[in-house]
Amino acid sequence: MAKLKNYTTTVPAKTSISDIQSILIEFGAQSIMLNATDCRVTEIKFLYRVGDSLLPFKLPVNIENTVEFLWRQYQKGTSRGRKTRDDFYDEAERVSWRIARDWIHSQVSLLAIEAVELIDVFAGYLMTNTETGETVADKIKSGSWDKLLTKHED
What we know:
By secondary structure, this protein is α+β, with helices and mostly antiparallel strands. The strands form two sheets. The chain has a three-stranded antiparallel sheet with strand order 1-2-3, with helices on one face. It has a two-stranded antiparallel sheet with strand order 4-5. Strand 2 and strand 3 form a beta hairpin.
């Protein structure tokens, strides 16, 4: 399991989430909002100014998928049988948000040194519909992005 970054973290999720908010603010984000399900933060939404526009972004963290990953790793181990899948939610939340914190800090650091532009690293998280929270990545995954792609005939 050592391949998973931060898998042993004891840093509470709320600390990592607070760190993310601070990092985003430090690098120019505006109007940060947290969304939660079952008392667990599942995404951070924020506005970032690009030119004359405030662009809406949504950075989700899928705790459920992390639970599943940790559960599969546990089942492969020699200590099977003492825990249930539900025992991994707190750990999954800590790990997920710590990984997100590190990723976001890396991305905005690249922005700071002008190695990339905002849209280069956050394009997939740009919301195309702020009411539903649909992002560019959601559109691509659903196939509805195809009509915007240029088709080349051979």
